[in-house]
Every structure is written in structure tokens, then in C-alpha cells.
Amino acid sequence: MIELVSHERCITCQACVTACPENVFDKVPHRPPVIARPDDCQTCFLCELYCPVDALYVSPFAERHVAVDEAELIAKGLLGGFRRAMGWEGGHPAGTDRDLTYRMFEDGRVAP
Amino acid sequence: MAVQEKSFDARRAESAPKQVDVLVIGGGPAGVWAALTAAERGASVLLAEKGLVGTGGATAAGNTTTIYAGPSSLEREAAIKRRLQHAQGLADRHWIERVIDESFARLNQLADWGYRYPVDQHGQSYRGSLRGADYLRFMRRRLRKAGVEVLDQSPALELLLDDDGAAAGAVGVNRLTNEVWTVHAGAVVVASGGCAFLSNGLGTNGLTGDGLLMAGEAGATFSGMEFSGQYGISPLFASVTKGIMYFWATFTDEDGNELPGEGDRQGIVARQLLKGRCFAVIDKAPPYLQQGMRVGQPNMFIAFDRTGIDPFKQRFEVALRYEGTVRGPGGLAINDDGATSVVGLYAAGDAASRENMVGAASGGGGPNATWALSTGIWAGRAAAEFVARLGNKHHLRKPKPSGQVGLRPTRETRTELGAREVIKAVQSEILPIAKNFFRREEPLRQSLAALDGVWAAASGELSAAHLPAAELVRAREAAAMLATARWVVASAVERRETRGLNRRDDHPKQDPALARRLFTGGLDSVWVSAEAQSRALAS
Questions:
Q1: What is the pTM of this model?
Q2: Domain spans in chain B, listed from the N-terminal domain onward
Q3: ipTM score of complex
């Protein structure tokens, strides 16, 4: 579930507010958004993908909240990890041409 | 929570209606293809999505396979054969062919438009999978180009019907601004997905059966709702229901004993979870494949990386998350054009019954993505043609709202029945494996009685008319899940056999006489009836 909006990094673009499919954030004028409905988070990581400055952290725990420490997350290189794995840059899609999903179907054991 | 001074109906009366030819509800794959196709046919189109067109729905959160098979190819024949085998007598070969063929053309069109497919080991462009978030963002740009008006964060709450009961628009709310919106339309396409009952499966919590409820209120007929004993495997701690990985997994009990049951991944886990805890390790994937999984399914590996688990070497505890009619085939019964039994109302994707394509089985990612694409196109086309036949007359209609539970309670005095209580009550009947994966007559009847009781209470008392958007939406989601649960359970009671996703422990065999569809519908009183003709079993 969403655990962090970094006030250090947030540029108040509100991209996460409009991108969240579960309406978890509330807009605050000229300020970072607040996590208004944390329990509605569906742990889909899509807000991280849409954040242009890697200011968000979604903990993989889907049904309980975990306290996180921003400095520790940065030190471990965890902020922006999903976006980097996908290949998106600054909120812009990229990386579909590097997808290796087809490897799962090459031996014919699994077929779509 | 803040109480709105004005009721929902007062705010609705004040909202200036937009006039369009075709309204599409839902902006996943089925919705975007429906909207694009209707616009290409010259219709003015508005698409309203609960989340963002790009992140809303089950596809956005994952990587989806498709059936990519050209005309008269061996792959096409194999895919058709596989579908007929899995469908257990209830699919239709003609439908499978037309779904595959329509999608093949469109998957190629995506490449022509600039979607970047990967190139495989043999230097071939691989078009059998799409990255959900990229695919939908790409389609969003096509919608803008085609002149489709998109309302993001704008769930529809109820349909508008004309004097003859035909679909004539919808009313909804913008979750970010709290504004109520009204759209008058010549035809409506329901592409709002299935219902996964807020089970926290990947990307499915927005899929609460909203469109099914709205169509049900208009009197629509559903089919295949009993084929819904569908659960996805996920790590216990996480949301990521990526079932495909577990083809290469070993399942064990708490003591490390390997669990039997070749091939039937969900069944292995379900049987173990009745007894105790269940663990998995993806230990049968060679490094080359491991890399393919890691690069292809980033959100699954983000979950593991952030908890420090190596899923290829370490056992992790797994759970089953209910996928309901998102992966199960049940939904609105449609004809060849995607028309429902309500005039002017069309359905596509998971909101429509997928039995024609997958029969009694789930279908999984590939067939379902292909189904969404093709039925989206057909529903959009048919809706545009329907409006063209109506001419300008539809602008003269005075459509009326049709929403009931959650919006307009029937009792004057009421206690405070909240949406969350209703949701809890529904989940307690529908999520447990012991009730819904493994089904029996008596528990099903008890569930139905309990759900009927909740429906009666909710009809009388559930009202969010004076609450902010988030609560208004939640109340309608609660009503939608409740309605969907009753169609699911009532249908499961009537199918006294085990076929596909209806596993009846009290009727463990398939009954050839029941090779027919079950239809359902109704709100205050739910009905179920069998298709007149039994289908010849596909060989």
C-alpha cells in the first residue's frame, strides 16, 4: 500500500492524484498531495509509474501498513524502482520493445 | 465525513446534460476500442472512466497476453482447438474464430500506429503480449486524435432510460471535484469490467460490477454467472496475482511436503488452504526464463525485491484472491453485435458474458484480452449504427434516472446501514474458498438467503445521496457487488453439476443434459432460467 509522498522530491504536479485508479490521494493546492484514503490503495504501483520525479513509495504489503523511512528507501535505491524496471521516463511511456514476456511461451508448455 | 447540503438528485437536476451519440462506460481495452470504433463511424463519443483512462481496470496493472494468430495459420487452429477443449461444451467455434480474426488485424494495426512490440530471438516482431499501462496510454492518444471526449475519475452511477425503457445516457460523479455529471446519449456501451469484490487481486479493486448493476436495473439478462469459482494465486503478503509464473512452481505445505495435482495450480492451492498454509517456489524456471519473467512482469518482482525474497530459490507463502467475473466468463448476455437485452444498451469485454469464447472456463489473460478487443470494436460499431438509425430523434428524449440501491432508498425512516457493512456481508459469502471455490447446495442456499436479506435491508436503508463523491461511489459499488453476488450464487445453485468454474462437491461429475447456458437477472427478486436447447458437446 502507498506509504510515502516525498515532500523533498514532489513537484506538486498532481499526476498521482489523477492517475490513481482507486482515488487514494487528495489534491492540495501548491503542496504535495495527501494520502487521504490509504486503505483504498490496491497496491498496483501505477502511481509510481506516473510520478515524474520518483517521489512515491508503494510497499508491497497489500493488506497492512508498514512504516517506511525515506532516507533508508533512497539509500537502498528503492524509490522509482518500478518505473525504472518498466523503462518509463518523466511520466512518459517507454520500454515495451524490451519486454521479454515471450520467453514464457517459447517452449510451448504454456500457450495463450 | 462532510455532508453535502444538496442531495444527489438536486445536484443531478442542476448538472447541464451533455449530448452525445454514444456513451461508453469504462476505459479499459473494451471501452477504448468501443469508443474509437464508434468515433471512426462518425458518432460523437464520450467515454467515462472510474479511474484514469490508462490506469483503470485489470489490464493496466499487468502485462497481458493476447491470441495473435493469422488467418489459416497453424497457431489459429491450435488456439481454436484449445479453447473448445477448455470450454467444456459451452463455447461457439464461429465466435472464437471471429474474435481471433478481428484481434489479429487490430494487433497489427497497433504496430502500424507506432506501438513498439519487442523483437524475439528469431528477429520476429512478437505481437502476442501487450504491456497494459503502455497499451492503454497509447490508446488514450488515439482517442484524443479521434475526437472522443474522455472523462477521467468519473464513475457512472446510474443509467438514464427513455419512456420505452431504452438506454439513453447516464449520470455519474467526478471523484476529484465532487461534481455530478449527466450525459444524454443515443446508445450506451457498458465496458466497465467484471466484479472481483474488492479482493485485492492485482488491478481489480475498481472492478465492482458497477455496469452490471446499472444494466440489471434496466432489466438486462446475464449469462454464465455460475462460472465464477475463479481465484488467482498471489504471495500472501502481496496483490500480484500472476498465475502464469506458477506453471514453473513447486507447491508445498508448511512442513515442506510437495503437494500433488499436476497442472491444476489453483486447485492444488485451494485444497491445501482448506487444511492449512500453502507455500510456493518458482524453482522449475531456467535462468533464461527467469530473466524473461523478471523483465516481463516488473510489478511481481518489485514485490519480491522490496521484501528481499528470491522467488526462484526461497519458498514464500501463497494465498488465493478472488477474481470473480473478471476472469470468470459470466456477464451480460449479448448477441453477435454486442447488443444486450435492453434496447440501446451494448456490452463488451468482461462486462459481457464471455461464454461464446471460453465456455465454462476462465480463459485466462490471452483469450480475455482478445475478447475485450474484438467485442469492444463490435459494440462500438453497433452502437454507432443504432444511433444512425435513430437519427436526431434521440436528442428530443427526456431520459429518466434508474438507479435504486444506494441512491434512492425506499424507506423514509432508516437506521444507518453503511456501504462498508454491506460490502463485508457480501464478501463473507463470496470470498471464502470453502463456499465459492468448492460449492455445495446447502451452503449456496444459505448464502443466497443471507444475501437476499442484505439486499432487502440495503434497498430500504442504504443511502449516500448526501455524501461526498467517494462515499457515493462506494455505496453504489456495495449495491453492485451485492447484486452480482446474488446472480452468481443463484446461478450456482441451479447448475447441479461440476463444469469448468462451477465446482459442485455434491455433483462432482459433468451432466451432458446440462450442456446449456443459464440466464439470470432481476433485483428484488432474482430469477434463473436455462437455455431451451442443450448444446452439442464440442469434440
A1: 0.97
A2: 17-228+325-399, 231-322, 419-530
A3: 0.98
